[in-house]
Design brief:
The protein has 20 helices and no strands. It is mostly helical. Helix 1 packs antiparallel against helix 2 and helix 19 crosses helix 20. The longest helix has 29 residues. The N and C termini lie far apart (about 70 Å).
Length: about 325
């Protein structure tokens, strides 16, 4: 480093401080009402400051402009698309953007911008839907915990994307504006204590709640069966057998809803026949062939009748979904 470089540092710092002070004055000016001619001149200065190399300058300008009621669209967009320290306070407060603008920005910008939008005092439904559809866990959590967010349409999307996140589901379940339909859907995604509170608050019938949980659990099991590996399915079958939980009712319910792979793995597990051969027989859909396999697996005639009927129904369901 040269001596000249050292001597220039104080003046460089001084110049930046002057710009920061100028940015604050410009922001404060544009928040108030002034003659159009004066505003045009100051807006030109603001646009120059918004492109400044210094984050501190841009941050100061954006912070003051968050309360401005009238700004050129390109200036507002530039600030919204800046780094987090600059755009965050602006996006959390500005009234420059319409709900449609905010929804578009939520889809286009990075996660830190979605967090800022989700923290606004009022988040219209169209904006909440955008965050629920493209946001990560962080922005969606801020959205769900914000009492000013309208989740009338976004709630279902949150459950669809984050149903496995119990903490987030329980935040959603505690909202005062929860619809009855969404409350029913949440029953299988929350703890027993939270479920009891939800049932009491919404006046949901206890038997109805129990049926909803059972149905949701069954649907989740079928989804898992369809995607699980053969090894995982065999391990699951062994665990059920050890607990005496592999009942005819469970098998029939899963089969009717398209969980044919569970039956195939069960037959391979009990008969020792290669899984490829089992699949080929099962997918013929012929009751006589299925009956022979089930008999070899140790099923009684009564069980065979029920399971064959459920398997045929499930195969038809699979064909319909294909």
């Amino acid at each position: 480093m040269k001596f000249s470089d050292l001597t220039s540092l104080p003046s460089a710092r001084h110049a930046q401080l002057e710009k920061v002070v100028l940015a604050r004055k410009v922001g404060l000016f544009l928040v108030d009402e002034h003659p159009p001619e004066e505003r045009r001149v100051v807006i030109e200065v603001a646009e120059s400051l918004a492109r400044d190399m210094s984050v501190a300058v841009r941050q100061t300008l954006a912070f003051e402009l968050r309360r401005a009621r009238d700004l050129p669209r390109d200036l507002a967009e530039r600030i919204a698309r800046d780094v987090e320290d600059v755009s965050g306070p602006f996006l959390s407060h500005t009234e420059i953007f319409s709900p449609e603008d905010l929804a578009r920005l939520a889809r286009e910008l990075e996660e830190h911008a979605r967090v800022a939008i989700a923290r606004r005092s009022v988040v219209p439904s169209i904006v909440a839907v955008a965050i629920a559809e493209v946001g990560s866990e962080r922005s969606v959590t801020f959205l769900v915990r914000n009492p000013g967010a309208d989740l009338s349409e976004a709630g279902d999307r949150v459950v669809t994307r984050f149903g496995g996140n119990r903490a987030l589901m329980e935040h959603l379940a505690k909202r005062a504006d929860l619809s009855l339909a969404l409350a029913h859907r949440l029953l299988d995604h929350i703890s027993e204590a939270c479920r009891a509170e939800l049932v009491a608050r919404h006046g949901i019938d206890a038997k109805s709640a129990e049926r909803a949980v059972s149905a949701a659990t069954g649907a989740n099991l079928v989804r898992w069966v369809k995607g699980a590996s053969r090894c995982a399915l065999t391990d699951y079958i062994r665990q059920l057998e050890e607990r005496g939980a592999l009942t005819d009712r469970l098998l029939v319910d899963v089969l009717r809803n398209g969980g044919i792979r569970l039956l195939e793995s069960l037959l391979a597990h009990r008969t020792g026949i290669d899984i490829a051969a089992i699949e080929a027989v099962v997918h013929t859909g012929r009751p006589a062939y299925l009956g022979k396999l089930l008999k070899k697996a140790g099923m009684s005639p009564k069980q065979i009748k029920k399971i064959v009927a459920a398997a045929i129904e499930g195969l038809k369901r699979e064909d319909g979904e294909a």
